[in-house]
Amino acid sequence: MDPVRNPYAPGAGQRPPELAGRDRELDAFEVVLERVAKGRPERSLVLTGLRGVGKTVLLNALRSAAVTRLWGTGKVEARPGQSFRGPLSSALHLAVREIAPRHRDPERVDQFLATLKAFALKSGTGRWHPGIDVLAAKGRADTGDLEIDLVELLSDAAALAQDVGTGIALFLDEMQDLPPGDIDALCAACHELSQQAAPLVVVGAGLPHLPATLSASKSYSERLFRYARIDRLERAAADLALVVPADEEGAEFTPEALELLYAATDGYPYFVQAYGKAVWDTAPRSPVTAEDVRIAVPVAQDELAVGFFGSRYERATPAEREYMRAMAELDDADRPVSTSAVAQHLERKPASLSPARDALIKKGLVYSAERGTIAFTVPHFGQYLRRQPAPA
Predict the structure, then answer these.
(1) Which of 60, 182, 245, 391 could form a disulfide with 17 if both were Cys (CB 3.0 to 4.6 A apart)?
(2) 3-state secondary structure of 200
(3) Fold of the domain built from segment(s) 23-229
(4) pTM of the prediction?
(5) Residue 260: helix, strand or coil by DSSP?
(6) Which tens digits make up the pLDDT trace of 284-307?
(7) Record: fold of 316-387
């Protein structure tokens, strides 16, 4: 079929043509927006799940919902070892710029921008250039203690939004990569805002161990956030993600083709798009048949091996790769395995493998599913490793 008309979009964070299977999360967020707008208390939201399940796509869709409601919005992507004071300042600046034209008191807006500038300049990086003409404020959000400063800054931002009858939503991707001190500060700020019923919410997204990370930071985080586990799509939703875009291009899938595609993708949204694109490019005509899928599966696997899996595997050291191969060999279903089983498989003492395991966790390649177990953050990663030749 014509590759120019291929509707599938297997890009990182790229919205698919049909956002299937996420209506529950979108509807729940609409309720959050409505409640906050009416001054009702509401918890911030945290999305968790493996890589490739569409957390970033959903995060962007939720942001679009807030924009539709005329909320101010900003987005931050956390990075390991990097304080988010600077990136948060930029995101909040953008959010306030979206609501400032509706504010009747320009001086009040300038007062907040002065506070924001003072907060940002405490980052100590010298990299933030917001283009704010007002002088930095003194005595507000400028102590250098992130927890104190963040509570004051977000409280002032929420008050500014309340003046114009709207709210502010901050979207934080890769939340598990925040330094521990930043997580402490963010939890404290969200706690204060929830007590004030302030019109500001934080929507975070991260890997499955993020709830445990937040709980270790502040004991009340279990009640502070509403957690939503984002998982693979059920069969009907995965079929919808394939069928609707194809139908718009005048193409169809046979039931057998859809069945094989679900077996190949396991319903993971990124794989649905990747395999859908490969099938479209290799199928000679509509309808797409089971035989077309069988031909396309190796093509999709080769592309994923280079971009989705291979790029991650290359980031690991030889010792870390050995650890991951042991994980893959222990369970062909890629379920969590015990760290003691990995040590036994490698005929090593568990303590000697701790550096490799900890490094893999920091690189976001594995996570501690629960105490004493370890699992891949990337679906099908074990399958990929089992297909690779063993190192000499």
Answers:
(1) 245
(2) strand
(3) Rossmann fold (3.40.50)
(4) 0.92
(5) helix
(6) 999 999 999 999 999 999 999 998
(7) Arc Repressor Mutant, subunit A (1.10.10)
